[in-house]
């Protein structure tokens, strides 16, 4: 996003598929902002809906006999994945004529059982649906020996730039509170804890939320960049001041 000649950040993942899924989701969480949306009466995180599908797909449908390294890359204007593939067709996938087929049936069954995937073919449809809400764009799927999924992004969605989410025309179902559009569930919980006790430390927030201290620091850093909270004074006599 910043230096186009090299990666600003990289996570080289070499672990089991469940651990790989968690690491991929964490990477997306680190670099892309949340966007909350009302689907009927249910509040959903659109970014995580997209990330869930592309992260599970790159693991479930990978051709494991190939030495090609699967990748998830986030750039200023797009997020895209590549994985080795044993293609039954070649070219772009037309969602209106899409006929899904299972590639690694046993892995797919496990992912479905533990809630990381749904029925066959739902991933592509969900990516199309939620990308339109998230960025107003159309994702592309290209099948060949390498399967490529590309998600268009708005420049304003990237966390590393300025954290203002543009609401495109027709997205009038978004929550009215501007902070709800910018903060994820964890950050809203942090904000509520600080409202009740503004002297809480990172470790105390970590303990009460049952998440790692590094995650708390990352979430708080994003809130500081949004000028929602600020830490006043040092560790011993410091406290949180809510700006918005």
Features:
Heat Shock Protein 90; two-stranded antiparallel sheet; Arc Repressor Mutant, subunit A; 244 residues; alpha+beta; elongated; 16% strand
What's the topology here?
Elements: H1 17-31, E1 36-39, E2 42-45, H2 46-60, E3 71-74, E4 78-84, E5 91-92, H3 105-113, H4 122-134, E6 140-143, E7 146-152, H5 178-182, H6 185-196, H7 202-209, H8 213-225, E8 229-232, E9 239-242
Antiparallel strand pairs: 1-2, 3-4, 4-7, 5-6, 6-7, 8-9
Helix pairs in contact: 1-2, 2-4, 7-8
Describe the protein.
The chain has 244 residues and is of the alpha+beta class. It has helices at residues 17-31, 46-60, 105-113, 122-134, 178-182, 185-196, 202-209, 213-225, and strands at 36-39, 42-45, 71-74, 78-84, 91-92, 140-143, 146-152, 229-232, 239-242. Helix 1 (17-31) runs antiparallel to helix 2 (46-60), helix 2 (46-60) packs antiparallel against helix 4 and helix 7 crosses helix 8 (213-225). The protein is elongated. Residues 156-178 have low confidence and may be disordered.
């Amino acid at each position: 996003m910043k230096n186009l000649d090299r990666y600003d950040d990289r996570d080289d993942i070499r672990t089991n598929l469940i651990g790989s899924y968690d690491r991929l989701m964490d990477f997306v969480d680190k670099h892309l902002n949340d966007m909350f949306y009302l689907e009927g009466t249910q509040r959903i995180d659109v970014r995580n809906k997209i990330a869930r599908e592309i992260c599970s797909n790159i693991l479930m449908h990978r051709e494991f006999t190939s030495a090609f390294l699967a990748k998830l890359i986030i750039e200023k204007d797009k997020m895209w994945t590549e994985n080795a593939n044993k293609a039954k067709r070649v070219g772009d996938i037309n969602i209106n004529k899409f006929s899904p087929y299972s590639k690694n049936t046993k892995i797919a069954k496990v992912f479905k059982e533990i809630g990381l995937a749904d029925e066959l073919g739902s991933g592509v449809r969900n990516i199309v649906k939620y990308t339109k809400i998230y960025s107003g764009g159309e994702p592309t799927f290209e099948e060949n020996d390498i399967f490529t999924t590309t998600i268009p992004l708005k420049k304003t969605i990237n966390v590393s730039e300025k954290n203002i989410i543009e609401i495109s025309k027709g997205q009038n179902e978004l929550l009215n509170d501007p902070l709800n559009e910018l903060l994820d569930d964890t950050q809203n919980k942090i904000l509520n804890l600080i409202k009740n006790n503004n002297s809480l430390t990172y470790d105390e927030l970590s303990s009460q939320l049952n998440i790692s201290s590094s995650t708390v620091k990352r979430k708080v850093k994003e809130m500081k960049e949004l000028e929602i909270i600020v830490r006043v004074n040092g560790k011993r006599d410091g406290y949180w001041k809510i700006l918005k």
